[in-house]
Amino acid sequence: MDKKKLALIHIVKKELGLSDEEYRTILNAAVGVNSAKELDDEKFRTLMNYFVRSSHYRVNPYGLTIRQKVLIKALVQALAWDENHFSNFLQKYYHKRSIENLTKNEAIKLIESLKNIKEHSAIADKTLP
């Protein structure tokens, strides 16, 4: 098992707040293994598909997914924004206090906004002397 894929599985486990018992039950039910180290590429894809389709994958009742939440956090980190800066941005443009309150569509728009900001800041950095 690739270390990056193993790390991703553990990130998803943590983000979903799964106990070890719940995690092992899902591994066994979805792909028939007791440890993520036993996964091959096909079983990894099957497990990820299971998470995507399960209710565990939804962060809130509005449809926000764990993948969107992780991507938003990664983009904020890539922009080197502190929590206060991001909270102000979220409040000003999306009228939300935290990521957990976003709908799936709002998260899509936020992700695109953050990507655009990142792209424009990279272009600006290249043009500075």
Give a brief rundown of this model.
This protein is mainly α and 129 residues long.
Question: Could you tell me how far the N terminus lies from the C terminus, measured between alpha carbons in angstroms?
Answer: 45 Å
Q: State the secondary-structure class.
A: mainly alpha
Unreliable runs: none
How many individual domains?
2
Q: How many E strands?
A: 0
Please, what is the average pLDDT?
88
Q: How much beta, percentage-wise?
A: under 5%
- Please report the number of helical segments: 6
The helicity comes to 55-70%
Shape, principal axes of CA atoms: globular
Radius of gyration, rounded? 17 Å
List SSEs in N-to-C order. HHHHHH
Major β-sheet annotation: none
